[in-house]
Structures are given as structure tokens and as C-alpha cells.
Design goal:
Helices cover 84% and strands 0% of the residues. The protein has three helices and no strands. The N and C termini lie far apart (84 Å). 0% of the residues are buried. Part of the twin-arginine translocation (Tat) system that transports large folded proteins containing a characteristic twin-arginine motif in their signal peptide across membranes. TatA could form the protein-conducting channel of the Tat system.
Amino acid sequence: MAIGWQQLLIVLILVLVLFGGRGRISSLMGDMAKGIKSFRAGLKDDDVDGAEAERARLEAASQRPVDPALRSEQSKTEV
């Protein structure tokens, strides 16, 4: 079944209504595209922030002083 001129005309009209000109629908579609882009950028930023927070948490844990009571317990068990 081939696409006829009537189907192409309908598709062309839909594309023009949705994306063409300066009408309300085209501006809504543009705003929706901007919203999707900002949402994706926000997700990407959250991933970067999460990785930085995890790295900072691990670094802080490695620099934390060890309790002297735990040190003495470790030395007793290592013998």
C-alpha cells in the first residue's frame, strides 16, 4: 500500500500546524522541547553532583581520626 497524495497532504498540514509559523501550537511545542532539554541537563547535573558528593564523603571518611580505643584493640588482635 503506497502513500497517496492525500496522506502526504494531511501529514504536511499537521507538521505545519504543530511546528510552523508563530502560532500558539508551535510555541507550545518549542516550550515543550526547551523543558525536555532543561530536564535532561538537570539529570546530568544531578549525576555529577552525586559523584562529587560521594567522593567528598569517602575522602572525609579516610581522613577521620581513629579512636585510640579502637587502635589498641587492633594492636591486640594483630599479634
